Amino acid sequence: xxxxxxxxxxxxxxxxxxxxxxxxxxxxxxxxxxxxxxxxxxxxxxxxxxxxxxxxxxxxxxxxxxxxxxxxxxxxxxxxxxxxxxxxxxxxxxxxxxxxxxxxxxxxxxxxxxxxxxxxxxxxxxxxxxxxxxxxxxxxxxxxxxxxxxxxxxxxxxxxxxxxxxxxxxxxxxxxxxxxxxxxxxxxxxxxxxxxxxxxxxxxxxxxxxxxxxxxxxxxxxxxxxxxxxxxxxxxxxxxxxxxxxxxxxxxxxxxxxxxxxxxxxxxxxxxxxxxxxxxxxxxxxxxxxxxxxxxxxxxxxxxxxxxxxxxxxxxxxxxxxxxxxxxxxxxxxxxxxxxxxxxxx
Length: 346
Hints:
By secondary structure, this protein is an all-alpha fold. It is built from 16 helices and no strands. Helix 2 (15-44) runs antiparallel to helix 6, helix 3 packs parallel to helix 5 and helix 6 (122-133) runs antiparallel to helix 7. The chain is globular.
């Protein structure tokens, strides 16, 4: 099957507009945690403090994400996004001010938590629009649409960390947070203005039974898969305090090559891009559940123990390449198999 499948999707009225605007903001999300890490480490000289603030940011982002999604499902993207983005920008400015003034680590961590709690998941909002748009006779195109989403994520998480790492390693870490927040604000506000493709607000009456979905077997599977991805991106046996970007940066600094953090992170994303592209172009006969089990075994088998024993940049790069190839198909399958139509859940 040719790549015309992707072009056909983007020709649907309004599809290209919301996909591109959401994609514009996603590099900022990819840059935020690493930008905070570079900033705090530069001002305190401690990776422990930097990891604490970045970890608070990441944990708050994870815990608040479902709550923000619930608000968005109830009141709509166009109503919820603007105040959430304003709160996020305020939290980032507060964090920068506290770090520059040498405030206590507790206050700095609290600001990082607030910044993470107010970070909107633009990728999930874009996926919700695809889910709402491709209903009826178009549902067969959902796997391809979600593969396109995974490609957008891969490109953004390739460019974002590379940019913020380059800026951070250059000796001016605060400059890395400015483009990150600007991209999140710009992409989020632009997405909020695309009212025509926004899923309709569910309202209170339709959301009363939403909690029942937490007891469904499919939800447990989704939590398990995303927890596994979180371990891959977030921590290796407790070593990572914030995200995969933090230990890769520390790995490079420890070996006297801080600039190697960006290439290592790029290896994982570069390997995932062709895998995600090819996955979306093919109609698979194997059931989605079986596909998900097969590709999820990749990170589980090749990521944990090898990364504990490799000590070279080459070995680390090879492990990251193998695991990176599985991420886009996993994300596409999770959305395809378990996401309700029009839901903004992550």
